[in-house]
Each structure stands twice: as C-alpha cells, then as structure tokens.
Write a structure and sequence with these properties.
Oligomer: single chain
CATH architecture of the largest domain: 3-Layer(aba) Sandwich
Structural class: alpha+beta
Number of helices: 10
Distance between the termini: 28 Å
C-alpha cells in the first residue's frame, strides 16, 4: 500500500473526490448488525494477471479457482471474465473432465440463444472484452534525443492493440494535453501521436493524476501507459497520491522509462512502487528496441487479464482496505497472481457517486 499525508495538495487538485459518504448513492446496501445501520457499498473490480514460474500467462482459469479477501474477510465473486484472446492451453493438474472447459473446448452455443452478457458494475455490457487504455507521452525537454523513436514505438503499440480496445492519447510537459479522446479510431490516435512536439519541464505526477481522474468513472478494464524519459521536475504532488487514487479506482499504471530515469534512483523507485501498487509494471528501456519490447509486453498483459468483481461484505473500515487474491487448490498454488493490493473506501465511494450522477444526467461514463 502506498499512502501519503499530503492531503491538502491532493484535495486542491482533486475537488469532489472526498464527498460525504452518507450522501453518496451506491449500487447495493448491507445491514451492519453491530451498529444497526444500513451501509452502502460499491462494486469493487479487480484486474488480475496469473503467470507461471517462467512468466508465461495462465489461461482457462474459472471463477471458482479464485479466492478474494478484503481485510481478511472472504468475498463472493459477483462477476468474472477472462480477456485472453490467444488460444488457450490446458492447465496442468486439472482433471480430464475439466480440460475441455479450461481450454475453451466447450460445446457451440445454441443458435437461438443470445450471446451472454457480462454485468460488471451492475450494468449489462454485451461482449465486454476490450480495455480503455490511456497513453501518456512525455514531451518535455528530456525527450529531445529520442523523440522520433518514442513516437514510432507508441504508434506501433496503438496499431497492434486489438480492435475491442479504446485508446486515448495524452501528452505532457509542464501541462497536460489531451490530443485524442478515448476512441476506437486508430487513425485519430496516431494523428495525435504524430502531432506532438517536445517542449518544457516535466510535470509527470500532476498530469498522471489528471489522467487517472479521466479514467476513474469508466467501468471494466482500464489502464494508463506512461512513456517517460526522465524525472519529474515540475509537479506539485507526490507519486504516492497518484498511486492511491489509481488503486482506489482500479486503474492499472504501466510505465515505460528510458535509461536516463533508471540512472536516477528516486524516479526509478517511484515508478516501480506506483506501477506495482496498481497491478501494473515498470519497464526501463535502454534503446528503441527495448521500448518496443516493453510496449509489446504491455499489450500482452492487457489481453491476458482476468476481471473479477465483488460487493464487499460488511466492513466497518471506512479507510484503506487491503485486498488479497489467491488461487484455490494445490495444483494452482505454483502460479503467481498480480493485481492491486487495496483501495481507499471513501475515494471509491466518491468515484461511484460521480459515475451515478453522470448516468442520471444522461451521460455515458463508458
């Protein structure tokens, strides 16, 4: 868990995130026997990567293979989806009767039966298999040497993403520039990439916080992919505040950094802590080939995530709640699970309120 006491600055930059809890409408209510009050809870979504000892992704797991605990309280999975778009491989150790199910060799759907709908966040979303991906590109004066190579790497990443994903392209130096809003139109995104120019100081954490706020109301898988070529020298907030908001809103942060950032221990450590806390990864690329490899790795990660959600059981903790996801059964214990490690209950409640308000006013938070 990453925390910070610099709440004044955070509140100043994020108005409306800390609304009074009792006034926030929530999807479901629970009865708290200890206090005699009804406590509203919001659906918690988790994006989970499962890998073996060699780093290969494990496909074909089922809902019952996962165990979720929040503050050590067992939770019941409300919704489950696997986003793996590659051919599935048999899972070692499963009984023969389960192999067909695990490898995707299920019987064909009946022709008269409609396709199933996933109901993440209580809203029917037919065929929810894509992700909402925000690319945040460093256009500060740190980027002069490798600017064109970085544009090429990002462009290749955009074009390689599956069609089901929507992509937004932002850039930053001292200020954030939203060059392309979230869209499935790859041409619009690539045009935004190609139109960027290198400029001023780098305010990474300020810009990343604003990007997290843009992603926060979205349901389902959402990620921010940062390309940074150097340390932050112009932000007014610390990376811990960014990480806490991203954790609380279920936003994964991936960071692709260059050798210059790796040579500065403070930036390197901050990038690694921030990405790990949100369930993402940090990459340190020494040349343009490694940059492309990093983006390719991020694409693979996004297309192999499991999405799980649950309504928290009665819990009097209205502060930071820890999350632990494990695999059930000794045949699955050898695999590694990666996801966010918790969330702030009040921050999640505030984001839920903003999403509900958008829906009530006719706006689509999707």
């Amino acid at each position: 868990m990453i925390r910070s006491n610099k709440t004044f600055t955070f509140l100043k930059l994020c108005p409306g995130l800390f609304l009074f809890l009792a006034s926030a409408p929530r999807p479901e209510a629970q009865y708290d026997e200890t206090s005699g009050l009804r406590v509203n809870v919001a659906l918690v979504e988790l994006n989970v990567a499962v890998t073996d000892n060699k780093g290969n992704y494990v496909s074909g797991l089922r809902r019952e293979d996962f165990v979720i605990k929040e503050d050590n309280i067992p939770e019941k999975i409300a919704n489950f989806e696997e986003s793996d778009e590659s051919p599935r491989k048999p899972i070692e150790g499963l009984p023969p009767a389960k192999l067909g199910e695990a490898t995707g060799a299920a019987k064909a759907p009946e022709p008269d039966r409609p396709a199933p709908e996933h109901t993440l966040a209580g809203v029917g979303i037919p065929g929810l298999s894509g992700a909402n991906v925000f690319i945040l590109f460093d256009t500060s004066n740190y980027m002069y040497r490798s600017f064109v190579f970085a544009q090429d790497a990002i462009t290749e990443f955009v074009r390689s993403m599956p069609d089901a994903n929507r992509i937004a392209f932002y850039s930053y130096s001292r200020d954030l520039s939203r060059a392309a809003a979230l869209t499935a139109d790859r041409f619009r995104v690539v045009s935004g990439v190609r139109s960027t120019v290198a400029g001023d100081d780098a305010a990474l954490y300020n810009s990343l916080l604003l990007t997290v706020k843009d992603a926060a109301p979205l349901r389902g898988r959402k990620a921010i992919v940062v390309f940074s070529n150097g340390p932050d020298n112009a932000s007014s907030i610390p990376p811990e505040d960014v990480a806490e908001l991203a954790q609380s809103t279920g936003t994964i942060i991936y960071i692709v950094s260059t050798r210059e950032a790796r040579s500065e221990p403070a930036s390197s450590a901050a990038f690694e802590r921030m990405s790990k806390a949100t369930g993402g990864k940090a990459y340190f690329a020494g040349n343009w080939r490694q940059e492309r490899d990093a983006f390719s790795s991020i694409k693979d990660d996004l297309t192999h995530l499991y999405t799980l959600s649950y309504y928290p059981q009665t819990n009097l903790n209205h502060g930071w709640r820890s999350i632990k996801v494990q695999l059930a059964g000794k045949n699955l214990e050898k695999y590694h699970v990666r996801t966010r490690d918790g969330y702030s209950f009040q921050q999640q409640a505030s984001v839920t309120t903003e999403t509900d308000s958008a829906s009530a006013s006719g706006l689509d938070p999707q």
